[in-house]
Amino acid sequence: MPTEVCVRDKVEIPIGGKAVRATFVSFDNLGDEKEHVLIIFGRVDPESVPLFRIHSECLTGDVFASLRCDCGQQLAGTIKLLTRYGGCLAYLRQEGRGIGLYAKLRAYLMQDEGLDTFEANRFLGYRDDMRDYAPAAQMMRAIGVKSVRLITNNPDKVCQLENNGVRVVERVGTPAYITSYNRRYLVAKANNKHAIELG
């Protein structure tokens, strides 16, 4: 029988340049044994239906402002939204749609040769998307939340959350942060069933 997921630590940290206070929560017994973190903005009542975003780690976009994707802009936009309305952000350590940082950098080389982001993964022997969102559902259940309003354009996140016991009451779309550098990347995602409005 699997061991129950439980909260390990709660640390309040000022973030976002305006000293917004958020609570970083770590866990014991997450299924994949990675160090994912849940960030809670404001107070989340388990009986409410909070806003919830699952964000997969993107070192190049989140930290170094890479123009190849819009991950950094999505993260910043989510933090701004959750700062205003409250809710939770699951930051999952699943770089490169789950293939890891080094493989993602190799996929970038394939993209420079003309492949799109999904074709590059396949060329390297990976599936289109290898992420597992079960840890996000485990974290929400551990804090007592059973239903969410999910901030995403990715239908797989909705399916995986619901298959892991967290009901998605509403899908809240995220804007497309389109530039000349990332348009091809976003078009590939739109062609892969992501609900992205490219304008």
Largest sheet: 7 strands, mixed
Oligomer: single chain
Secondary-structure element order, N to C: EEEEHHEHHHHEHEH
Q: Quickly give the structural class.
A: alpha/beta
The average pLDDT value, as a whole number, equals 87
Total helical segments: 8
**What general outline do the C-alpha atoms trace?**
globular
Question: Order of strands side by side in the largest beta sheet?
Answer: 1-2-3-5-4-6-7
Q: Strand share of the residues?
A: 15-25%
Query: How many strand elements?
Result: 7
**Level of helix content?**
25-40%
Unreliable sequence segments: none
Radius of gyration: 17 Å
Distance between the termini: 49 Å
What does this structure look like?
With about 200 residues, the protein is α/β, with parallel strands linked by helices. Helices cover about 35% and strands about 25% of the residues. The protein has helices at about 60-65, 70-85, 95-100, 100-110, 115-125, 135-140, 155-165, 185-190; strands at about 5-15, 20-30, 35-40, 50-55, 85-90, 145-150, 165-170. Strands 1-2-3-5-4-6-7 form a seven-stranded mixed β-sheet, with helices on both faces. Helix 7 (about 155-165) links the parallel strand 6 and strand 7. Helix 4 (about 100-110) packs across helix 5 (about 115-125). The radius of gyration is 17 Å and the shape is globular.
